[in-house]
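Onboarding guide, step 5: your first structure request.
Type a short instruction followed by the sequence, for example:

Predict the 3D structure of this protein.
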Amino acid sequence: MAEVETIPAASEALDRVLAAIDELGLSGNVVELETHGFTTVKGVLSEPQIERAKAAILSRVERNVGHAIDVDTATEDDFQGMTYVPYMLYDDEIFEEILVAPKPLTLINYLLGESCLLSSMGCHFKGPGGMHLPLHSDNGNGIPAPFPATSHVANVNYALTPYSREAGALALVPGSHKLGRQPRPAEADLGENANPDAVAMNIDPGDAVVWHGNSWHGSFVREIPGVRMNLAVYFNRQYIQTQERHGDTVPEDVRARHANDTRFLNLLGAKQPYGWRHEGPDYSKFAFMPRGLYD
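The system replies with structure tokens like these:
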């Protein structure tokens, strides 16, 4: 009798996620995710990784604006306020490394399950002046309030330059993930009447902040010379539309480098059964769709 492939029980995924959390020493981070809605993982990126990521992002921005930018001394005349630099994954192999950094990805697995997808990877490139980014929840992509307690989207924000309030840091509101809604206009301000519950993430280059999709976050205006650079890596559960297109558009050289790395390819939609054309659905993929919170 032919051997039939069995589908793992959903509980096996939870066992794997919990084992990885224990192995990587992330239990305290999980407690912070549950209580505050966000957590900081220190020293995720090495100095060479930070510098290579910064160089790739700066190269893109300088091409766009048509002049050189000094990351340490830039003024408002050089670059004012914030712009979002999208679709960074394929600009340099360093971003492929960062995508699968074990500690942040394990926390994303805890929040979204192992079947989650990369939604987008980009940089919020911020010079002096401009406007603050108001507090918001990333559930603004169509998830109606009241938000479910389960995270449907989640973020990893890597600091590539020092974060502080005067440097235009990321801000989060502890416990806001439990409110189940977007902030009201008066609650969203990070300017003169900044929400008093908003906390500036005072972190170092290479640190990563991971947060639940319900959590209110934004960023302060940069008040000092120079540029704040981050790498925002945004994920969603498999049944949610990603912000960026990957799947059948992944470059062949990237596929070849990760031919034996199913986790990397699954983040880019290798197991996603939807999006068929005349060929119809691949029913083999449906057999491995998630059945629980962690697979």
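Each response can be followed by summary notes, for example: The first helix runs from residue 10 to 23.
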